[in-house]
Amino acid sequence: MSIEELARKNVRELTPYQSARRLGGKGDVWLNANEYPIAPEFQLTAQTFNRYPECQPALVIERYAAYAGVNKEQVLVSRGADEGIELLIRAFCEPGQDAILFCPPTYGMYAVSAETFGVERRTVEAKQDWQLDLPAIAASLDNVKLIYACSPNNPTGNLLDPNDLRNLLELAKGKAIVAIDEAYIEFCPQASVASWLSDYPHLVVLRTLSKAFALAGLRCGFTLANEDVIALLLKVIAPYPLSTPVADIAAQALSTEGIRVMRQRVTVIAENRSWLQQALQDCACVEQVFTSDSNYLLVRFTASSHVFKTLWDQGIILRDQNKQPGLSGCLRITIGTRTECQRVVDALNTLPGA
Prior knowledge:
Elements: H1 3-6, H2 9-12, H3 20-23, E1 29-30, H4 58-68, E2 75-78, H5 80-92, E3 99-102, H6 109-116, E4 120-123, H7 134-138, E5 144-150, H8 162-172, E6 177-181, E7 203-208, E8 221-225, H9 227-236, H10 244-253, H11 256-281, E9 286-289, E10 296-301, H12 304-313, E11 316-317, E12 319-320, E13 330-334, H13 338-348
Parallel strand pairs: 1-11, 3-4, 3-5, 5-6, 6-7
Antiparallel strand pairs: 2-8, 7-8, 9-10, 10-13, 12-13
Helix pairs in contact: 4-10, 5-6, 5-9, 11-13
């Protein structure tokens, strides 16, 4: 029996998540992974590398709880929000029996994580305005233990209607966990549902330091939930999910000064987003620029594959979204520095329209 034959069938057939780094490319303007364009500077203060770290570093938990407006007992820290996505599946879904549900077009890791664990992936496509199709969701909840909803949604950039989210939580009551992915919430903090935890015992909120905190390379994420949910996740998380240097830098990023700097970054990105959105309207090859509450813009082009390759050849790397439902002709552009945004516009202005 070969190594391939020894592997689980679903793993043999699995297409891994095509992350920005996995897709590669050679460029100097990286606008395909929704990262912050400038690296922050930190100095390590921890030196006890001979000891295993805390499973849940107390200072990181304390500072994130204060930042998010929740109790310390409602916070779990993990290796990025991606680990939070997986922990929920491991804790609540029985392979070959239960299902997760999500609403494409949306983040691809929900599907990949479920497939990895042998859990059914059930989809209910979003409506044309990318809001939740609640009647269709209600009709699809048999054996669903976990529902993922991303707000602001990646890659469309729109917020989900809060009334729809409350209705979704009502639909799932007593049936399923509802995980609201708030990876981009720093760009629209007024829209967070973290304050709803006291109202909904089955609500989970996923967060990260990868976006507005400019720490994608740190791999530090958070799961906010009620204590009984956190207790279950602690049963399936790795014994030492955060290395000592990661916890050290995360705690610094969540200090009063760190949060102040993060909010300055958000202001700059919002200004650059508004500038880029306006500038794109005047490009002949652009059909539509969609409104965004995040650090990226979804744009529909008249010839998106040609646009993608032309910019790729110039070292400007965007994210192709053509394979997502309803996103034919769409590319996603991370908001970079003003200079990077100008590079994009200058390159697009050389391309013809329809």
